[in-house]
Fold this sequence. Notes:
disordered N terminus; 5-stranded antiparallel sheet; 2 domains; alpha+beta
Amino acid sequence: MRLDSRWMLAVALALLAPGVADAQIYTCTADDGTRIFSDESCGPDAKVVPGISTSQRKASPRRPMTRKSNEELAELERRCDDGDVVACRDWTFGGGTQLLREQEREAEAACEQGSLTACEQRWCRDGVNERCRTLVLQTAKLSGESWYLRDPDGNGRASGDGATLYDIRCVPREARRHRDITVACVSRPGPNRCYVARPEDGAARLDLAAAKHCAAL
């Protein structure tokens, strides 16, 4: 059982509420830096979560839920992501999951109205899956099979040497996580006018350069 620390409702209820399965709970850090909770030793840095006993049921009253402010919840979530199990519990009982549901509903509505940022927030939070790829590729102003332009107006931004910079997100089908690159395009025409690091490795157009460099990641 491996759980992304962003979704701490299951962790807090499974680990901290009375009456759960008999098991030791471990925590460790995944390759992408997220905090993992598991009922198995989840890596070389795995540590037993202290103060958690799952061997007995305790007849204690359920803790009342008091909604905390968004600022308090953000701080608790940050501490929870750093491995503070008590902060995870306080985030859950302080209305953290309710806030996530509200944010998801708002992001879903904004995504349907054409907001690329909202589509990323709603559907790509946990990595690159088909739902994420489908929605962001459809919503982006410019996209290909494995990439899309994150700039909402498509105009890019000027660099100091006269080139225009474009923020590209690579989302190949086989990848679990996206990769971000910046493509620079100079104004003069040429076979290598759009590139990432070296002009000699560039392409004639932004879309060709984005596809080439995303495929090479």
